[in-house]
Amino acid sequence: MIYPIVVYGHPLLRKVAEDIGRDYPGLEQFIGDLFETMYNADGLGLAAPQVGKPIRIFVIDGRALAEDDAEMGAFRKVFINAHILEKAGETELMTEGCLSIPNLREEVNREGRIRIEYYDENWEFHDEIYEGYKARVIQHEYDHLEGIMFTDRINPLRRRLIRGKLLAISKGKFEADYRTILPGMKTKSA
Ligand code: NI
Questions:
Q1: Domain at 5-188, CATH from 1.10.10.60, 3.90.45.10, 3.40.50.1220, 3.10.180.10
Q2: Could you give the CA distance from residue 176 to residue 188 in angstroms, rounded to a whole number?
Q3: Model pTM?
Q4: CA quadruple 81, 92, 41, 11: dihedral sign
Q5: Ligand 1 centre and the CA of 7: distance in Å?
Q6: Over 90: is that where the pLDDT of 68 sits?
Q7: Ligand 1 center to residue 16 CA distance, Å?
Q8: How far is Cα 71 from Cα 134, in angstroms, rounded to an integer?
Q9: Is 141 tagged catalytic?
Q10: Are the CB atoms for 60 and 80 separated by under 8 Å?
Q11: Tens digit of each residue's pLDDT (9 = 90 or more) over 101-113
Q12: 70 CA to middle of ligand 1, Å?
């Protein structure tokens, strides 16, 4: 099932998501649906709050980047009950986008290295270190679990300049080829 994606300005994107138990109903189906929704929207990652579920799950699949970056191309993962334990390393500025903020791309400063614990889809526990672009994508998706949008992390002057754009997006003034949910729960067709 392809979910509509919740758009910037919706309060569901601002909640801190909760851990789930192994008995969470329909988990396997939900994870499959997250991937399906992400592929349908040509995304690189998708977090449960973006489809309206305030739980600590996100998925990543870098296969769209396979041509330029073999390592990202083979990076497909499910993160359940994710918690970042540490961020370190040089910060780096890089352009990001988000399916919840259609057609807006801005430079975001992020740490180069993270340590994260999570469970995978088989409930195996992991405590791992990621660097570079993987660390960036994970931090972006992880932020969704904390109610943080990438636009919160851009420089304040730039953020002021795009305030009008964000307001327009939250009112549905954008073109996206996937279904969305606007603040106020109106759904918008592709
Ligand atoms: Ni995002």
A1: 3.90.45.10
A2: 9
A3: 0.95
A4: positive
A5: 10
A6: no
A7: 15
A8: 9
A9: yes
A10: no
A11: 999 999 999 999 9
A12: 22
